[in-house]
Amino acid sequence: MEAPKKSAQEQTRWLNENEQLMWLELREFARGLPRALDRQLLEDADVSGVEYSILAAVSESSQGALRSGDLAATLGWERSRVSHLLKRMESRGFLHRCAASSDGRGQEIALTQAGWEKIRGAAPGHVTMVREVIFDPLTPAAQNQLLETLILIRHAAEERGLW
């Protein structure tokens, strides 16, 4: 005679008290940090966090321009989201789009002078906040442990196709 199958409730590996506390803290961190970064960038530089991400990605490209599809892949965003943001940022004068020079298909995104000024003006305050909130509270050993832990978590998610 076969043993009765366990229900999903019985099979679940529930979080212990410490794991639950850690999960709730991680969830709050994941929610709160983007809001805090966005608020800092808006107050200090009149640019949103997503706009800053685009400015930074384009400014760091080796040719000074990125194809819009490559930009979406770099940021891990949907192409439609990137397209909407590019239109808004172009209207603000931060970037310009033109047909890709290599094959004429797709668009290349490059920063305008105003875009370069915006990223150069926003970066110091952004880096200061990141340093003060993420790095300064941690010892070098804790920073290394955090890095190793984040890599392990990301790899576990990637193995399950979640990232």
Unreliable sequence segments: none
Instruction: Please identify, by name, the CATH architecture of the domain at 19-122.
Output: Orthogonal Bundle
Radius of gyration: 21 Å
Strand content: 5-15%
What general outline do the C-alpha atoms trace? extended
GO molecular function: DNA-binding transcription factor activity
Domain HTH marR-type: 19-155
InterPro entries: HTH_MarR-typ, MarR/SlyA-like, WH-like_DNA-bd_sf, WH_DNA-bd_sf
Organism: Arthrobacter psychrochitiniphilus
Set down the secondary structure blueprint.
Layout: H1 8-11, H2 17-45, H3 49-59, E1 65-67, H4 68-75, H5 79-91, E2 95-99, E3 107-111, H6 113-135, H7 140-159
Antiparallel strand pairs: 1-3, 2-3
Helix pairs in contact: 2-6, 3-6, 4-5
Structure description:
This protein is mainly alpha-helical. The protein has a domain at 19-122: Arc Repressor Mutant, subunit A, CATH 1.10.10. Helices cover 66% and strands 8% of the residues. The chain has a 3-stranded antiparallel beta sheet with strand order 1-3-2. α2 runs antiparallel to α6 (113-135), α3 (49-59) crosses α6 and α4 (68-75) crosses α5 (79-91). The N and C termini lie far apart (42 Å).
Summarize this, please?
The chain has 163 residues and is mainly α. It is built from seven helices and three strands; from the N terminus they run αααβααββαα.
Task: Write out key terms for the chains shown.
7 helices, Arc Repressor Mutant, subunit A, single chain, extended, mainly alpha, 163 residues, three-stranded antiparallel sheet
